[in-house]
Amino acid sequence: MTPLPPRERLRSLKRASLLGAPTPIDRLERFEKAIASPYPIFIKRDDAIPFGFGGNKVRKLDLVMAEAVQEGFDSVITCGGVQSNHCRATAAAATRLGLRCHLVLSGEAPATLSGNTRLDDVFGATLHFVAGRLDRAPAMTSLGASLRAEGGKPTIIPLGASTPLGASGLALGIFEMIDQGHRPDVIIHASSSGGTQAGLLAGITLEGLKTRVIGISADESETALRRTVEGLERGVLDLAGSDADVTRAEVMDRFVGDGYGLETDGSREALNLLARAEAILVDHTYTAKALAGLIALVRDRSIAPGSTILFWHTGGQVGVLAR
Ligand SMILES: Cc1ncc(COP(=O)(O)O)c(C=O)c1O
Asked: pTM for this structure?
């Protein structure tokens, strides 16, 4: 049998049916006016994925959880910060698919659960708090060992479901965007564990587009994140059976401010502008910083004249309500 061409290979990956219809792509005319943009700006509404409060993680989990079910695991273990969107989406996906979910959350256990942590609990996940980021991986390993010792069959999903398989979900997102008739010149989005940008870039490469994909870092340095993204992009292309070269990933870390999850003047402005012009929510940890990056690039005219921009909204709106 002749192997499937790369795009078809990705399209034929087993999915868990967590995604509904294609997410809308809308023009942000009022927001364009608010920032005096000479460029048309569109938004890809992955925040509006109906399952489990949506976001980019649902695209990744659609593939990663399908594999976990296929391989007969009975529980998943994953990790993130206390307000992790990825953990909340994993908790929802596990419940939908009949698996148990254990979340290793770094940070202080809150006195009252709010935002994503509250949803983790509501979706039935077991929460395990550890002090810092470096404690997460060992905690997941030892949790896996104790569940196995009790006769369970757990699998560990790495941070952000940023594996080549998970990132492929965003390459499928690019195919979806093209099917919707959009071929933007520039895509801007929030980047952290690298899978989203890797998948978007792989999709762009496989479609032969020239689109610039700019990842606005939520925490990591440009150098470190670029290396992660490029490694994962290679993984996605390999999974697709493509020997295309990896694109150099364009990452910007100058919008992080004082650190992960901390508001900046730019994120406050971005959140207020989008909410008041379009009634669409972004969060300070990821998407408001990405939008602050977009606003800065528009104001600086760092984008080629005549370009069309697409803001890939990766979700995180639950964070607006977290205490
Ligand atoms: C809302 C939101 N946007 C963007 C990201 C970054 O995506 P990635 O981890 O795939 O780089 C995350 C997760 O880290 C997220 O929760």
From this structure: 0.98
